[in-house]
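Task 17 of the worksheet. Students: predict the tertiary structure of the chain below and write it out as structure tokens. Keep your answer in the requested format; marks are given for formatting as well as content.
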Amino acid sequence: MPEVLVFATLNGLVTGLLLFMLASGLTVIFSMMGVLNFAHASFYMLGAYFAYSVSLYFGYWTGLIVAPLIVGVIGALVERYGLRRVHQHGHVAELVFTFGLAFLIEEAVQFFWGADTKNYQTPDLLDFPLFTLFGQEFSAYRGFMLAISIGIFIGLYQVLTRSRVGLIIQAAISHPHMVANLGHNVPLIFTAVFGVGTALAGLAGVIAGPVLTTFPGMALVLGSIVFVIVVIGGLGSLPGAFLASLLIGLLQSYAIATNVGMQDLLALFGLEFPRSHPLDDLWTLNLSQIAPILPFLLLVLVLIFRPTGLMGKREQ
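Model answer:
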């Protein structure tokens, strides 16, 4: 069925690039600072809620600009007055700090916005089908999500690898004292990097909120998958995160779109279980039912055969 394959591919690309938009901020923070921010998905949730509140008064497009800036400022303040003081006590203290921060943000969201789902809608300007194929419509908003995600990847890659700012940032990680002696404010660079990383998470929340719904548990839905992407791609590798995001998005989309069962897959290898077998219930599952755990199965395989990730260059 070509129409199923085509739309599964399109939906997988949208999902994958949305995951990259969220994972890119975490990748930038880790590659520049060596910090695995457990609260990263919480900043993604804040972006959606801030954009929703701003859109009620000023419209979607104002929220698209303002919400990531607010989240970025909050992230910078967290680094300056919280994470920087914890950093001297080691990585375990950083993980505990960001883990607690995630719970604090979730409680704050429920306190200020309530526990109900918000009616955060796509803008009227993009509320039309971009094209129709095989009798099915592909919305303009999903095309907008694709364009924003690809633009973020190209922009980040150019800044980090080709610009003077990117060179200074990378030098501040490996030779902070030398960079400081050249007159650059290294602590300010780290604060800016953390702020930009959280702002990218906020932007992902702004984009995803109308599609994936805006509710207090939205950080938990994607939070674990983001870390899976970062590890599969290779810790600190932006191209690796991009590749891993697309791989996971397409893998889940194809699994959901197909009706292939475990018995059909086992038959390809000549395996068959009798009805009386203890694992019979497991083999009656189909791919669409196990789609949520496929990223974690992929993570296990990557860690077994390539522990540094798809594009990781060294042990982290």
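Marker's comment: Strands lie at 129-133, 136-139. The longest strand covers residues 129-133.
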